[in-house]
């Protein structure tokens, strides 16, 4: 499954408080959790308890990404980290991710060409088999499936 793990805790527990907490929340586009009156860093997340606050799927994904940004690891592996986000939130999240992961190893799995095109190397997998490896430009020329996905996304964007 590409969903983040849902655990009973508060935001502070997720991020282990420090000066980097607000920066991590901001990069993940969940800084509202520090700003809105109904939320605070010690607010219990999840509706399993009477005083817990349930977040949307996209908000849970943003919290998971805030943990990634807080960690400042040398290697990142993300599996569909934006599947529950709208296009605007997704773009902001990935712009932050690309900034954070510069000079590091970052592997992310996505079905969206608009996100994959920013990678230095893209691996296209169809039915469990690698059908293309290259840059965005190379794959547009040499990989039919990638080109078709690109055109489909382009048409969907133009309709909206």
Automatic annotation (TrEMBL):
Domain ABC transporter, by residue range, is 50-82
GO terms, molecular function: ABC-type oligopeptide transporter activity; ATP binding; ATP hydrolysis activity
Q: Does the keyword Transmembrane helix apply?
A: no
Q: Which Pfam families did the record assign?
A: ABC_tran
Q: Which InterPro entries does the entry link to?
A: ABC_transporter-like_ATP-bd, P-loop_NTPase, Type_1_exporter
Keywords, A to Z, come to: ATP-binding, Nucleotide-binding
Q: What is this protein called?
A: ABC transporter ATP-binding protein
Which species is listed as the source?
Mediterraneibacter gnavus
The taxonomic lineage of its organism, from the top, reads:
Bacteria, Bacillati, Bacillota, Clostridia, Lachnospirales
């Amino acid at each position: 499954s590409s969903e983040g793990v849902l655990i009973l805790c508060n935001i502070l527990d997720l991020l282990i408080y420090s000066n980097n907490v607000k920066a991590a929340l901001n990069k993940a586009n969940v800084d509202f959790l520090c700003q809105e009156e109904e939320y605070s860093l010690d607010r219990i997340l999840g509706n399993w308890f009477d005083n817990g606050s349930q977040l949307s799927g996209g908000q849970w994904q943003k919290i998971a990404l805030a943990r990634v940004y807080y960690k400042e690891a040398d290697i990142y592996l993300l599996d569909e980290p934006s599947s529950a986000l709208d296009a605007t939130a997704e773009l902001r999240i990935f712009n932050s991710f690309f900034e954070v992961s510069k000079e590091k190893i970052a592997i992310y799995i996505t079905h969206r060409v608009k996100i994959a095109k920013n990678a230095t190397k893209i691996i296209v997998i169809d039915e469990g088999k690698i059908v293309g490896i290259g840059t965005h430009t190379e794959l547009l020329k040499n990989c039919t499936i990638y080109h078709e996905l690109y055109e489909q996304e382009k048409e969907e964007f133009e309709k909206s």
